[in-house]
Structure formats: structure tokens, C-alpha cells
Amino acid sequence: MFDTFRYTLLGLVRSVDIMVWSLLFPLVMSTVFMMMFGPLDEMGAMEPLRVAVVEPDDSPEGRAFDAFIEGASEGEGALLDVTLAADAAEADALVRAAAGTDEPYVGYVMLDGGEPRTFVTASQSTADLDDLEASVLTLAMDEYAARAHLAANLLADDPLALADPAVAASLFEPMQATVQMAVTENQPKESVRYYFALLGMAALFAGGVGLAACQRLKPNCSALGARRAVGAVSHGRAVGGTLLASWALSFACLTVAYGYMRVVAGVDFAGRDGLCLATVAVASLMATSLGCAISALPHVPEDGKSGILTGVVCFASLFAGLYGQPTMQLADTIATSFPAAELVNPAAQVAQAFYSIMYYDSLGPWLGHIAVMTAMAAVLFLLSAHALRRQRYASI
Amino acid sequence: MEDIVSVRNLVKRYGSAIALDHFNLQIAPGEVFGLLGPNGSGKTTAIHCILQLLTYDKGQISLFGQPMSPTRYDLKRRIGVVPQNVAVFEELTVRENIDYFCGLYVPDARERKPLVAEAIAFVGLEDYAQARPKKLSGGLLRRLNIACGIAHKPELVFFDEPTVAVDPQSRASILENIQAMNAAGSTVVYTSHYMEEVEGICTRIMIMDKGRTLACGTNAELKAIVAAGEKIVIEAQVPEAAVMAIGKLPHVTRVSYGDGKLEVACSNGEHNVADVLAELARARIAPGRIWAEPPTLNDVFLEITGRELRD
Fold first, then answer.
1. Model-level pTM?
2. What is the C-alpha separation between B113 and B124, in angstroms, rounded?
3. What's the gap in Å between the CA of B221 and the closest CA on chain A?
């Protein structure tokens, strides 16, 4: 059985067709996704607002404003990216000069009579992001103005209150009126779903390994199969070694794809590598069983079986949402309206298993998908059992 | 001595078509047994049934005196098969392929190593041991096909049309190898539709057609079946009237004319050539080259079926 395993594996590894679809294809697609989704992910992240600030004078209001600006532009998660200008004319010139470039200013701010005044540029494009940045800057300055007023009033009405460090500190602390709630284990990211769907597609393409291995095993599928069948190795061992080699190669290919997404593409799998590898193992088993089942289809030419596998992969991947936002919505709609359709979709099950690892605290949903995939593998193996067990044929 | 292969009343149908019609075969140890017949005569089907690749409707098959079945791995271990189509792993090297197929019979890798080396040397593929099959020519591929089937030194080897689409040099090499194997103690079953090959290497020959045994015996025994004592071939331009006149001569059993060659089959007679030449002279025909041939297996086939073996 070891020789069967070894040489079947060696033959499959050296098969260009198989390695292109099972190994290279997911890597290429991952790279394409990286290029597609990288800029989109960055767009979703808030960058510091690029703003020109007229250098305040040395008055108490000026020093307070200077301290505010310094606090807002320092450290990780800084709100402002500040460029100091000597006066309003210079700030205005800076903003105008940068307009339409890759690094425009949102506007400029200055202290006028002890109160901040904000000048924002009119929207330069149809993108809503420009208006959003201007609003954020305006809000920040308005909040500063409100707090400055509060401090001035307090100083006038109850100067002793400001002697209390807690009161003084509260004037300058960020407001905590809004608290972010975490409804999932990790922060959702739209692009990650595509990678999960791609893993689903890659798993099914790995079914080609099982298909090719079975074709080379069965006398009615190839001359090679016929020759192997007349050998003195028991049929059970030949089948066992062949399936084991197919599963091992599928597992290896998917693991490489997973590793590439994890390390190179930087896809967040929530650090649950053990669960991810377990998912890859079960998905590979399911892929092998799919290949076996397709190889067992009667009255279908061998080339036709490869076509059927490709059709199954593409169709299943469509409903796993791989082909873009509309299909992602279609997948969601079907999952909601016809849960059974998702249940029998192997690509969707693989994608959902990774999704569960990423977003759920509990292992329940993941175990559910693993159970479904295992059941699928069992059913597919059962369907191909008769063909795999068969040693004699009416014609070959 | 007990037959190494025994097939009795084997019937195999493909739907309504009968591929083997009460086929019988007995092969003694040490023979090079030839199965000769045109394409579709049932040779390969017979071998596939013997090897238990095909189901059959009726009949008994025994190898080494024991009933054969798909799970008789003890019997399979003593058999080698060289299939009609080259059946090897395209992705494995010559050495790996031979090692794999030898491993189907010899599980111990250490025991296998010298056998593989010997097989490579036997078919003369030493220079290609690390090459993959797609780098080999058709003749070298056939040699690899043979090495994969014989590396484990089987007692009984089935060669199913091993020289199809092979150049003359490789064909000669393959036939030599088969004879060498037989000399080393292997019993050989050799199927072909090339009568020259079968005549050249087989100790006993069975002629098949349409799934039935037409004749079986040694080369000489088969030729004795034929009424033709000799075949006279004359290069000349012969009109149809003269051909018909020659056909009416005593001892002439068959006459044909084509491509400037007159072929006259005669039963044993003392003056066959003289009689034919006299008839040509009467028709004022000047003959070119003239020669006489003993009957071939093709003549035997023709005698029995009325058709050429290569039809």
C-alpha cells in the first residue's frame, strides 16, 4: 500500500494539469484578490485629516489651542496631520496648492479672537469621503470651541472648580458617549469573505486530484488502471493507497493556499490556525470524495468527467459568492431563503466553516459545517463505493 | 504435464454480439503460444477474461492448475502482462515506472531493486532510466511497456500485440526479448495479427476469428491443413482470359491477379510451374520474374475462412 501511495502521490504531484488547478490557481487568485481588495481595505480605514493650522499666538487661548492641536496630531490613531502656517494667507495658499493632488488638505483652521475658525475645501469629487473628512474636522473644532466656552464660563462663574484636577481633566478628555460593541469575535471585513469563498473553490478544484487518481486506478477508465488491476496487490490496498495519496495532495495544496492567504495576503483567520487546518483536512477529504464520485459516473467519457467537475466547481462557487458583490448578495439571499441550498453546496460549506472560525466565539457553528462536510464526504464515497470495489467489467 | 493455462468453453457476449464462442485453450509450461487472428477476432478479449478484467457468460478458466478469480493474488503474482496499449505513468521516470509495476508483485523494495535494474538492462533502457515516458520514442516506449510487465520474472507472460506501431529494429529487439524470456523458463502467450511474427517465435499457434478457434497446432501442422502445396508467383501482364484458363489447370486450387502479379495456388503436383508457364506461352505472354513459395499462415487462414488475414 505504501508503494501505491508513494507512486500515486508522485505521479499526481508531477501532473501539470493537476498542480495548476489545485495549487497554482488559488495562489494566483489570492494574489489577484490582494491587488483588488488591498486598496479597498485601505479606503475603509480612517487616515489622519490633512489640515493646515495657522500658528496661534502666545495668549492663553493660543496656548490652549496649540495644546489641543498637538494632542490631536500625536500618537497612533491621530486625528490630524498638521502643517503649520505663519498666517491665514499662507494656510489658504497651502490648501489651494494641494487641491486636486494626491494629498489634498481638508482645509485649514485658525484661532480668531480666541475662537477656532475652520475653513474646509468644497468637495472636489463625487466621492462622499471628502465631505466626511470635512465634517469630521468641523465637528472636532466645534467640540473644541464648546469645551473652550465651558472652561471660560467655569473660570468666570466658579474659578475654584478648575482647581479640582478631575474637573480640569474632564474638560480635555475625549467624550465617551459612544461605545463600540463587538458582536463578532473579530472585526468584519468584506474582502475576507472572498478569500473564504476562494478556499471553497480551491477545495473543490482539488477534487481533480481524486478524479485523476481514480481514473488511473480503474480498468474501465484507463489502460493504466487495467494494468494495475492485474497486479498482485489486493484491490483494497490499491484503492486505499490511491485515496490516501489523493487526500494528502489535496490537503497539501489547500494548506499552501491557506498559508499564502494567511502570511502573504495577510488574511485574518483570528489566529485559530489549528481549526483552520482541521477545516482544510475535512475539505480535502470532501474534495477527494467528490472526485471519486464523479469518476464513478457511468456512460460519461473521461474528458467529460473533468468538464463536469469544472462545472460543479464554478456553479457551487457562484453560490458561495466568489464572483463579486452581486453574487455575494445572491449567496446571502439564498442562504436566508433556501438554507437547504447552502447546506448542499460544498463550496459554501467550506467558506462558511472559515467564516465561523473567524467570527464566532463558540465552536458550534464551525462544528456544524464540519459535520455537514464530513457527511457529504461519506455520501460521495458511498456513491462511488460500488465503482471503487469493482474488479471485473462487462467491457473495458 | 499440467497445463499452465486452461480455458474451457468460454463464452463472452457484448450485448447481442458474441466475442468468444465456446473458446478453448490449453497451454503447456514452456511454450511460446501464439494467438493469431485479425483485429476484432477476440484475442484481447480472451486474455482479458483469463486475467479476470472482464466478466464472461460461461466457461472455466484455470491457471497453474487452479481456478482463476479476481482475488487470486497468489496466481496473479506468477503472471506478467504486457498490454496492447502502452500503460505506464506519464509522470514517473522509466526506473520509477518499472519499480512501481514490479512492486505490484514484489513488495520488498530491497528484493525489487536488482530486478528493476535487470529489467532495464534486459530491454536496453539503461541510458533512459531517469527519462520520463514522453521523452521516449515509440519503440523505446514499447520496451518500457515490456519491462514493466516482466521485471518480477513471471512464470507466465501475456504479450498482447506488443509490436503494433513499432519500427522494424525495435520489433526485432522485442521478439528477441520474448524468446530470451522463454529460454529463461517463462511460458509466453503472444497475440498478434502479424503472421510472420507468430510463425517466427511461437512453438504452437491458434488461429482465431470471430471469437472462435479455427485451427490450433504447430506451424507445420497448420500448414499441412492447407490444400496448397505451393504458391507460384509470376510477374507478367496477364489478360483475364488467360487467368481463367490457368485456373482450370489440374492441381490449381486458386488463382488471382493484381498489381502485375499472378498468384497461383497449387495442390501438390509434379509439374505445376511448367503447366502454368505453358499456359502463358499459349496466350503469348512473356513472364518476368517467377518464384514459388511454401504456404503461409495467411494461406491457412484464407483456406479456412475464405478471407485474407489482414482483411
1. 0.74
2. 17
3. 34
CA dist B214 and A64 (Å) reads 116
Supply the ipTM of this predicted assembly: 0.80
Asked if residues B10 and B47 have their Cβ atoms less than 8 Å apart, the reply is: no
Label residue B246 exposed, middle or buried (CB < 10 Å: 0-12, 13-18, 19+).
buried
Q: How far is A283 from chain B (nearest CA, A)?
A: 26
- What's A59's DSSP letter? S
Residues lower than pLDDT 70 in chain B: 1, 226-229, 268-269, 306, 308-311
Q: Report the C-alpha gap between A390 and B53 in whole angstroms.
A: 10
Cα–Cα distance measured from residue A277 to residue A252, given in angstroms and rounded to the nearest whole number: 10
CB contact under 8 A, A227 and B87: yes
Task: Decide if A57 contacts A88 (C-beta within 8 A).
Answer: no
- As assigned by CATH, the class of the B227-294 domain is alpha beta
Residues ≥6 apart with Cβ < 8 Å to A241:
A1, A2, A3, A4, A5, A8
**Dist CA A106 CA B77 (whole Å):** 84
**What residue spans define the domains of chain B?**
5-224, 227-294
| Phi then psi dihedrals of residue A195, to 5 deg | -65, -40
Tell me if B174 sits within 8 A of B166, measured CB to CB. yes
Three-state DSSP state, A230? coil
Distance CA(A385)–CA(B12), nearest Å, equals 26
Q: Which of A3, A9, A215, A230 to mutate to test the interface with B (most CBs of B within 10 A)?
A: A230
As given in the structure block, the three cell numbers for residue A370 are 464540519
Place of cell 487472428: B37
Q: B5-224, which class in CATH?
A: alpha beta
Instruction: Classify residue A115 as exposed, middle or buried by CB count within 10 Å of its CB (0-12, 13-18, 19+).
Output: middle
> Is-contact B133 B91, C-beta < 8 A?
no
- Alpha-carbon distance of A197 to A346, in angstroms, equals 11
Do B73 and A393 count as a contact with CB atoms less than 8 A apart? no
Please, are residues A52 and A94 in contact by the beta-carbon 8 Å criterion? yes
Q: How far apart are CA A205 and CA A208, in angstroms?
A: 6
- In sign, the C-alpha dihedral spanning B159, B162, B168, B170 is negative
pLDDT attached to residue A45: 62
For residues B226 and B300, the answer to whether their CB atoms sit within 8 Å is: yes
Q: In what order do the strands lie in the sheet with B252-258?
A: B252-258, B261-266, B230-235, B290-293
The pLDDT of residue B104: 93
User: Crossing angle, helix A60-72 and helix A128-157, to 10 degrees?
Assistant: 140
Residues in chain A with CB shorter than 8 Å from the CB of B110 are none
- Does residue A127 register a pLDDT over 60? no
Torsion of CA B205, B210, B212, B217, to 10 degrees: -20
Q: 3-state DSSP call for residue B290?
A: strand
Rounded to an integer, what distance in angstroms lies between the CA atom of residue A238 and that of residue A177?
A: 68
**Amino acid identity for residue A240 in this structure:** G
- Position A123 scores a pLDDT of 62
Residue A221 C-alpha, separation from nearest chain B C-alpha, in angstroms: 12
Domain ranges of chain A: 2-40+187-389, 47-172
Nearest CA in chain B to A17: B91
Share of chain A above pLDDT 70, in %: 91
Q: What is the rounded average pLDDT for all residues in chain A?
A: 85
pLDDT tens for each residue of B92-101: 999 999 999 9
- Please tell me whether residue A182 adopts helix, strand or coil conformation: coil
Give the CA radius of gyration of chain B: 23
CATH code for the part of the protein at A47-172: 3.40.1710
| Minimum-distance CB partner of B83 among A13, A15, A223 | A223
